Amino acid sequence: MKRITQILIAVMLVFTAIHSHAAALTDYGENKLIDAVIRGQTLGVPATWYIGLATDTCTDSGSGTEPATGAYARVAVTASLANWAGTQAAASTTASSGTGGTTSNNGVITFPTSTASWGTLQSVRWYDAASAGNSWICINLASSLNVTGAGFTPSFPAATLQFQIDN
To answer: pTM for the complete prediction?
Structure first.
């Protein structure tokens, strides 16, 4: 019965969004933005964002505690108009012209299927490298997800991973 329950949960995760809220720039992201916009320094924005899951909640200074086993890996998403919505509307692919300061993913972001426990996931982070690197953005999940073993495939359907810069 336990195995059947795990399989059903895994199937549900393929089709269900992990909802998120409370997005914030980390100290690293804030410092990079201030130096570029106000102090004339090069921003050095990554050409690719690496979306990661963490077992801790967001803090400005933390880099996140990611699962270390079970086929876990960050998901690469190229920084582009096609992959991230403009501020005017979800799924838009033109330069931002909205007033809400919010972007979201235009495509599904799917993590590898777990082969072992990843622990209880509580936040999602945007990194500038496939491993290690710097955490720029952290978003707490609306509800935690306990990946107890093999067969979990967390994903964010289009428009569900939202980041607002003027919150």
So the answer is: 0.86
